[in-house]
Amino acid sequence: MKFLLLTLFLTASLHAEDNLKIVAIGQAEQEVEEIFFSVKGLRSLKSNKKKAQIAVEVFQNDFSYYRKLFKVQGRKSPVQKGHHVNFQFFDEGGLRLSVTLSNRNGSKAKFDAFLSVGNLRQKIHQINDNIYRQLTGKSSIFNSKIIFVSDKGSRRSHFVKELYSMDYDGGNKKQLTFHKGTVIGPALSYDKKKVLYSLIRSSMHKRNVNLYMLDLETGKHQVISSRRGLNTGAVFFPGDKEIILTMSHEGNAELYKMELETKKLTRLTKHFAPDVDPSINVQGNVITFLSGRPGKPMIYIMDPSGIERSVKRIGYVGQFNATPRFSPDGREIAFSSWMDNRFDIFRIDANGMNLVRLTKDYGSNEDPTYSNDGQFVAFSSQRVISRRKAVNKVVIMDRDGEIFGPITEGFGNCITPRWSK
Amino acid sequence: MSLYNRDMKSAFMFSIGLHITPLLLLLAFSQTDYYKKKKNFQIIPLSQAVRIDVVAMPKMSLQELKKMGGAPPPIAVKETPAKEEPKQEASTDDKDAFLKEGKKLKFSDLIKKYGDKKLKIPEETKIAKSKASSKVNKRDAAFNKKLENLVMAGNKLSKGEALTGDSSFRDTTVLESYAGKIPDIVRPFWKLPTYLMNKTDLKCRIRIFIKSNGTILKAVIFESSGEKEFDERALEAVKMAGTLPMVPAKAQNAAVNGEIVLGFPL
User: Fold this and answer.
1) B204 interface with A at CB cutoff 8 Å
2) Which of A22, A191, A213, A406 has minimal Cβ neighbours within 10 Å of its Cβ?
């Protein structure tokens, strides 16, 4: 009988557990992890001291972009915590660098590199990317490139805008095109080997905006499309075999898909309103573009596998929206919009929710482009100096609008940045 | 017929056995994971989804909104006491004026008053009027300030106060509303390193036993995530939070018995 009572009691107490209230705490915050950074062998160096100092600077600058994840500390840690990065320099013919990464779990990684003048920054970026991968399991922006258009070297009599490329941090700037014309709307392929751009040649009799492709390995360029009217705003499809571009040979600006080898065209949009500025996600199944269908330029998305397939309007506000750009994962769209007599960068989720403003009181900002990891946005910022003069710079901020600063200081007027994906 | 009948006794034992075995089976089954998963807990969602119809581009940038912090901007306008004093005087003057007028208002007086071609307005009311108008100006200023703050706040979403869930039990709502306050206290301490942030499917639940004054008596892992550090971080967050607000009388019993379980993240 006692046993029976006991069992009854036990089951009763079990039932009491059903009354528990579960309260959701929500997503955790990102903890800022500490990296203890030490340098050895710097003093004993003779001729290569400057190179070594640059290497240290590049490391610190690279990780300063991820200040929400890591805090780089110069001093040695008193207790065994955080991650430890050690740069050891050797004078062996050239400059040899040995980097060790260790953390409290005892895991270790080692990276070696021979540094010369030509590859110094690139090698350090690679090492930093390896360190970042070890710590987070993701790839960083350290190896990424940005292409942009600059009017550097143009005179009042002859105005040119040529295409340039640089590392994401503004180092290693290179001129890519020498057309002595106006390059607009560049796009970088996913393998970083090809560049699409449109060109307006001032010398040409009939001004037509043609589309060119430049092979960065051979340095040769070719005309991709020269139909009457616009041939602009081209972007590579993931895989670099196809492109999407805006063309107006049928009278009205519409989006087309083109196979690069056969030049075969497939029309994507069919509407009496203009459709321009396509941007594609990494999967290649959604594009976002700007359309004048509602009477004002508004942001739309669609499936690029068919004509007018699942077209959906995303934005409903803004006086004048421009340049919608997908984040690599396709979850967010950054765009610029006219507000308070200037353009500013905004961000909206691909489902039309969470519209936020990213820039404010920082000149006029246009042409956002997401970094390869989706954590940063580069854009061109214009400061009006006088009635006739304005300065354009490429500026980097994180996806929440925290500005890191310009990376093309003193390099002419730089516009239309495109971050490699 | 007595109970000591042999057949009857064996039948009785058999019946006891028949009843107890399913009970034991039930008991054993209840300990299995399958049962635990099947349990339907009353989950109180922390953040309510708010549907907003966007009518204009946001004026304030995300950085500005972040700087404003979690709390909405103070909508109530604070005024210094020095400013308030003349206000009060004005209002008392107002009342007196009306009172005096009220006293004067006799029928004969009224006839006399309106019989006069020149309307004499008593000076006191004049003053009162001017004071009142100044008061109105002040009120306008205060209102404008309020409006400004409201516009600022309008750019920002505040969390909903209401809790959803099955609130068929009247006396549990006190506990629910108390439990609803806990996440805001614990969340600032709920931090994860990068490698755990990347694993999005981890889930840990911690059962807490709370004394009536709000101190956490005990915090135990109710459902483990399977990742040791994740569980430790969740426990640490609860411990770092320290004391919780006083438990309301109606919920004290349930709180001490550990009826509140915190879900990290759900």
Assistant:
1) no
2) A191
Residue A358 contacts B, CB cutoff 8 Å: yes
Question: Is residue B131 less than 8 Å (CB to CB) from chain A?
Answer: no
Contact B59 A30 (CB under 8 A): no
- B43 Cβ contact partners less than 8 Å away, ≥ 6 residues apart: A22, A24, B165, B263, B266
Give the HSE-up count for residue B135: Cα atoms under 13 Å, Cβ half-sphere.
Answer: 17
Nearest Cβ partner for B23 among A7, A23, A31: A7
B254 touches chain A (CB under 8 A): yes
**b/e per residue, A167-189, with b = 16+ CB within 10 A?**
bbbbeebeebbebebbbbbbbbb
A371 near A141, Cβ under 8 Å?
Answer: yes
Indicate the pLDDT class of residue B87, thresholds 50, 70 and 90.
very low
This complex has an ipTM of 0.75
Chain B residues closer than 8 Å to A348 by CB: none
**What's this model's pTM, rounded to 2 decimal places?**
0.72
Rama region for B255: left / alpha / beta (φ>0; ψ in -120 to 50; rest): alpha
Question: Residue A158 burial by CB count (10 A; 0-12/13-18/19+): exposed, middle or buried?
Answer: exposed
Residues B65-98 as b or e (16 or more Cβ within 10 Å = b)? beeeeeebeeeeeeeeeeeeeeeeebeebbeebe
The SS3 assignment for A180 reads coil
CB-nearest to A24 from B188, B198, B265 is B265
b/e burial code for range A21-50 (CB count within 10 A of at least 16 → b): bbbbbbebeeeebebbbebeeeeebeebee
**How would you class B176 by CB atoms within 10 Å of its CB: exposed for 0-12, middle for 13-18, buried for 19 or more?**
buried
As a whole number of angstroms, the distance between CA A289 and CA A350 comes to 12
Which is nearest to A188 in space by CA: A374, A372, A394? Answer: A372
Q: A90 to each of A40, A101, A116, how far by Cα in Å? A: 9, 18, 13
Q: Is B143 left (phi over 0), alpha (psi -120 to 50) or beta?
A: alpha
pLDDT in tens, A348-383: 999 888 899 999 989 999 999 999 999 999 999 998
Best mutation site among B194, B196, B220, B264 for testing chain A: the one with the most A CBs within 10 Å? B194
The helix or strand, by DSSP H or E, that contains position A391, with its residue range, turns out to be strand A390-398
Q: Does B207 touch chain A (CB under 8 A)?
A: yes
Contacts with A360 from chain B: Cβ below 8 Å? 60-61, 63-64
Query: From the CA of B146, how many Å to the nearest CA of chain A?
Result: 24
Helix, strand, or coil (residue B210): strand
Nearest to B26 by CA among B35, B14, B13, B17: B35
What is the reported pLDDT for B108? Answer: 67
Cβ-defined contact of B57 to A24 (cutoff 8 Å): no
Helix (H, G, I), strand (E, B) or coil at A220: coil
Option in B65, B237, B263 nearest A24 (CB) = B263
- If you average pLDDT over every residue of chain B, what do you get? 69
Alpha-carbon distance A15 to nearest alpha carbon in chain B (angstroms): 10
